[in-house]
Predict the structure of D-xylose ABC transporter ATP-binding protein.
Amino acid sequence: MAEYLLEMRGIVKEFSGVKAVDGIDLKVRRGEVMALCGENGAGKSTLVKVLSAVYPYGTWDGTILWEGRELKASSIRDTERAGIVIIHQELMLVPQLSVAENIFLGHEPTLPGGLIDFETMYSRAAQLMAEVGMPQIKTALPVSYFGGGQQQLIEIAKALNKNAKLLILDEPSSSLTKSEIDGLLRLIDGLRAKGTACVYISHKLEEVAAIADRVTVIRDGTLVGTAPMADLSVDEIIRMMVGREIKNLYPREPHPVGDVIFEARGITCYDIDNPAHKRVDNVSFTLRHGEILGIAGLIGAGRTELVSALFGAYPGRSEGEIRLDGEVLRISSPRAAVAKGICMVPEDRKHHGIVPQMAIGHNITLSTLPRFAPSLLINEEVELQAMLEEIRRLGIKAGSPALPISSLSGGNQQKAVISKMLMPLPRILILDEPTRGVDVGAKYEIYKLMFELARQGMSIIMVSSELPEILGISDRVLVMGEGQLRGDFINESLTQEKILAAAITQLPLAG
């Protein structure tokens, strides 16, 4: 039996003459959790797409050995048949189908004559869900009934049904709560004990430290090194990833905070499916000139609904009053909000932040097109200069502004969305989960940008599920729970414990 379950040797993948992956080696043993770390754009996704035959054999150079034999897969079906299964950051589930139907999609058991054997399918689905820690789940219910953490486990059950020997997890915890992450790590530990190997890709290095046996770091498409997790610290992984030491991830910079310029009064958002239920219930707050206001709370607390309503983007019925410089604003759409100086970077960049097949540069200038078309015709030269300047200013890793934005890594897409929302020169910038799926180096750059914008007088509202981020960046923190405002705290000696206490208590806590 070969020492390694998987060996990737000298993998090279080019796009238009540019090497996204240049001579990378990766080795994984049976029952091992290998963490794959690197900045956005480092080549992680390209490497696993080579491994899973999203990029089939013949479109890249190098060698893949699987269980000691060369693997020449021409499709995802080939790699899954071998036992290599990838779970993407964006879950590949069909919301309208049941849990069992999703688990067996494309591999349905059949009766003589070709009809689906539903009894076997539901029985086996129940067994698989028990294996991933959800024995009570009703597998006949549509996937849409379940939250993000449960859907992640359904994806893993789907992979186990394909007899996965190697499970590739790409940013599996980006949308999970702390308790859901803990459950996911316990599940991976259980799979390891049964001999299933995992390649774990995550920017959350505390998770890497908790679960990985070894760590492979790549930077700019090349291999930096591989080492046992026991021989590394989180700081050393960061240094390997970014090529420099980041002593303080939250580079707080002094900036003046002025008078109140924005007020939200009685903001209420009603559930789309159940109008009798309030997703946001009578929330009021203020925002000062040059202030960074963090909004914390558990998932489902109503944070995204609140800021979506401020931006005119909440899809259901909402009410309340907002004032800027004392003037009551009537905002019925994002276009109206941008015209009034309020811009927002949404939580879900894939569906609400980008136009995937449009060029990177055109995505960036989309919010300010009239600026480049004074006579109804776009001045392409002026627009191109603006594109290049924004790409340079935000440090977006792009070969050309003409490439589709979908070709960028998630972190660079996020930078492009931020750039788009800065182009109108807003007075108030709303950032909903601005660093989700973003590597540590890009996080640092985004934080630096936020402090620079605040120093220049821009007011920022930041929603984040990461309490260290809330505490490291905010001047003041609002805490929401069950749609209500539970706390309003100056960020001086504020702790995670106090924020969590406010989030779960039924009564507002004094700041």
Remarks:
- Residues 178-193 form the longest helix (16 residues).
- The domain at 257-341+426-511 is CATH 3.40.50.300 (Rossmann fold).
- The mean pLDDT is 89.
- The CA atoms of residues 6 and 28 lie 5 Å apart.
